[in-house]
Design brief:
This protein is 24% helix and 36% strand. The chain is α+β, with helices and mostly antiparallel strands. The strands form two sheets. An eight-stranded antiparallel beta barrel has the order 1-2-3-4-5-7-8-9. The N and C termini lie far apart (114 Å).
């Protein structure tokens, strides 16, 4: 009788040489990891874009927040949209150089600002742009409420970076100006705010009192110069065109030298 030899089964999934790693297997693992990472980043970007779009749609007809004051349902939806956007931006740094700039109010729950916006007509004027002008390097934040063509309420502050998203501030002085007059006001407080979302277009803020602020990057830079306010309405590598609080214009070019005292 012949004997049947029994041989151990060889699995097609076994490594042909277990003493050496299979480079193709590791390539597949790295490729899978990269694919998952890219997919996660794409999903996060899509989620952030959707939340941003929802927020901007919700505040678009709210008159900078005046209408929201009497609409708790809309307020709840806006806060939900802000919370969703904050989740997408929770791991980002929003207190770096990109925080600097002239930011223009789109919507807020801050009662003091809304009171001024609503009641400016009692003083024979209307509220223009409401701005936050921030310079991270200089540690300066200025809140500006304009009353075209000549008026402005201006609050100066110092700022200190507290964390990746929180900024501490302290008011240092304030002034109310008209065309030919100026009323200095005392500083009135300190606190903090967190930019929970920041990109090239908008910034979303929550402050120490639980108020919210949505601002966009203004198409101009606002600066104070020698006690008068002006804004650069045009700027390139060769010239700058400015208009000040009194309606005066200034056109200057870049000097071919640097002046120092």
């Amino acid at each position: 009788m012949s004997k049947i030899l029994s041989l151990p089964a060889i699995s097609s999934r076994s490594d042909p040489n277990p003493d050496f790693p299979n480079p193709h297997r590791h390539r597949r693992t790295r490729a899978t990891t990269l694919t998952l990472t890219r997919s996660s980043l794409t999903d996060q970007s899509l989620s952030s874009a959707a939340a941003k779009r929802d927020l901007l749609d919700l505040i678009s007809d709210q008159d900078r927040g005046l209408r929201t004051q009497n609409d708790p349902s809309r307020l709840s939806k806006i806060v939900e949209a802000i919370d969703a956007l904050a989740v997408s931006g929770c791991d980002t740094v929003t207190t770096g150089p990109s925080l600097s700039g002239t930011w223009r109010l789109m919507w807020t729950t801050e009662k003091e600002q809304l009171f001024i916006i609503k009641n400016a007509n009692l003083f024979g004027t209307q509220t223009g742009d409401v701005l936050q002008v921030i310079d991270v390097d200089q540690g300066v934040l200025n809140n500006v409420i304009t009353f075209p063509p000549h008026g402005v309420f201006f609050v100066r502050s110092t700022v200190e970076i507290a964390s990746t998203q929180r900024v501490n501030f302290r008011f240092t002085s304030a002034v109310l100006r008209g065309e030919n007059w100026e009323l200095p006001l005392p500083p009135f407080g300190q606190g903090w705010f967190e930019s929970v979302y920041l990109d090239d277009e908008i910034r979303v803020v929550k402050d120490i009192r639980g108020d919210y602020l949505v601002v966009d990057r203004a198409p101009y830079s606002w600066k104070e110069y020698k006690g008068r306010m002006f804004r650069s309405i045009y700027l390139d590598d060769g010239i700058r065109v400015a208009k000040d609080i009194r309606g005066d214009y200034l056109v200057v070019d870049r000097a071919p030298y640097e002046w120092k005292e």
